[in-house]
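Data availability (excerpt). The following record was deposited with the supplementary files.
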Amino acid sequence: MNRQQLGLLFVSTLIVIISATSRNINGQGLASRSENKNVMNAEETKLTKKDFLYVVNNTITTLPCILTNMSITITTNTTNDKNNANKTLSVPVNATVGGHCSSVISEMKLIWKENNTDKENTIKFTFINDHENFSLFSIGLNIYLDKNNSSNSTGDWFNATSDTDLRLFVAPVTNGIYKCERKEEVKVGNAKIDIKNVSLIAFYKNGDISAPKEEQCSDKKNKTPTFPYVLRDKNGACTLARMSISLKIPYRKKNMQNDTAIIKVPTTLNVSGACDSSKGTSTMLLKWNPEVSKTESTFANNITNTIIFYLQRDNIESHVSVISANIFIDETHFKDAQNAGEFIQMLATFKDLFSTPAKNGIHSCSEKIFTSIGGITVTMRNVLLVAFDAQQDFASKQVIDCERTYFERDFTYIVWRNDTGIPCTLARMSIDATVLYKKGDSQINRTLNVPSTAVVSGNCGNKSSEMTLSWSESEKNSTMNTITFHIGRNETNFFVYQVAATVYYDKNDKKTAIQGESYSMQDLFSASGINGLYNCTGLSHEIKVDDIHLNITNVTFIAFNTKEYLNPKEVTECPANSGGHKPIPSVVGYPYVVINKENVPCIAANMSISIKVPYATKGTSTTRQTTLIVPESSSGKKMNVNGTCENEKSTMNLIWTENSEVNSQENKVTINFVNDKSNYFIQSMNLSIYLDDHTFPEANAIGSYINVTTGKLDIFSTPLNNVYKCSDKTSVNAQNVVITIDKVSLIAFNKAKNITSKSVNCANTESTDSNVGAIVGGIIGGIILVGIIGYLGVMYKRNRGYGV
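Predicted structure:
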């Protein structure tokens, strides 16, 4: 090997070493960024929340429930003695979005101002879920007609609502999206609304909207109404019903064999009956002609099948009280029936079938099956029923689901209020008490069950209540065993904070008893303090009351109830694990903590968060600004922290009331974390801010919410199992709202009961630090390149001198 070859080999080796060194100075960070870039490119092809102009978030789950793009033009026709003028408005893409979400009825409001006016225009879309599809049910308008741009010289409001059950933009409610560029025209009073270029998702429950099932433009010719059964009186519709009804009817054949016939009630039939809202009664008669054979067709027009629903309402609730049927025994369905050509009658009575609140309620039920006297089985699926108040605003209807309906008779132990007679504490549970005591030299365990017939006593307060269960085990011994539940309430939840018990050693012993009290608790049977219900069938609650061990299972529990009608309730389900209640690990120094199902703090944060909120003022075109400070739990304000803990995505909700003396509405900040398998970081933030007149004086939209979200973020990125610490301020924008975070100590996706002491401090110039390797490598590489060029030039000249 000559000198030239050795020189080239040396230079090549040096280049390789330097290149490898420059790549590895920050190798892990650069690799991570490369991987994130690849993931982002893959995700760009998927549908995300940012692809929609108008989004309504569920205030409880913080997930989007309505997402839509649409082009909306409104034409109003205003008439006076001299002129007949039209005014056209276009809903801007930056209109303020409001609304609410429920399982059956959801609403989206778009609010905006026209130029040269401080009046807010509103268009309201009401959507309905019929168990299979969602659709646009109605549109409401509240438009200001100013004197400069309309024939109404004084300036007036135009307020009108479209016909109900428009049945537009129909798509599957499970992972469906409606898309159509075609223009739809809707009449709203004297106004006309043109809607085109529609992309719509409604009643969405999952966080992932990346790949919905697409439904193209609706076919008007085959449009089936949401409510096919409509009972009308002189004032219009009074009872609305949607349901799929089938009857399984047993009958005897001519050969004495038993068989069954299936009768399905058609959706197109004759609806009649009578409504009397003043008396609280409604009777809806469904009538249709049976399917008959050719031999029966001569008299078929005079034969009808009927089903009658009897509905009633009192001051508390409305419900179906009776269902009757009269079914013709035809030869098509009742093959070889002994009594062909006759009728079979059915009658079934109910205490509270399809129950709703007395005022403006709607009942939803996926399936209801019952068997009448005589053995007829009736199956009703996909039920939507408005028994009364059919013409009242649908967006404000109280939705009751049959799977979440509760009545006094469903509970075993009840404490009533002395003043109103309303039940304040209601419980259904199984309780076993094990007594541990010594008799002579022997250790004895005795287990007794609290009977369902135990005497219930107690009291009902605003912040604390009691429920005592008393029972005697022997007719000879009148001495009573007792268990007392002490119930408390804070700003957000109710809970049992202590259990006391007195249990006698022996059922025939009148003198010797064990008494005890549990330690204080704050999570036993805990649910929302306002309209909440705790439900737990899969967890055994083990409570130590000194030498008495209680085992409580199959719990349904309500406390601090103030309503005669118990529905609807905000249900809290117990965790799936069966390990009982373990103490929450110490998180001293972290005011914001989310606990997972294993009782581990998966997210813990100590940070200062301020929110600058601009808002428009009444009667002017000026904009003011209010700065909110997210409080800590010790600040004295009503504060609640909750969230979700998953492997790849987690959330933390900070919920507080800004001024509890003025209003009880809540603000919410939701922080969304992502785990990319090596680091965690904040990916986005959602805000829901309530405009009260104390914090936002003279606000134009007092009583409404500002709902905004940031774009995709990548802040506070930290290796897993490390605490991120940074005192510097970080500001992000959520549309026109500015969120500033500083003094941060944060860990997410934590799996240890004790939070690690390992931490990573923020860098002031992260982008510079992250490129140090590339810069150094580039400089060194440049120097080497110059050397190589010089070296090659020298060798070239030397070779020419040798005549090569």
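Summary of structural features: Residues 412 and 452 are 6 Å apart (CA to CA).
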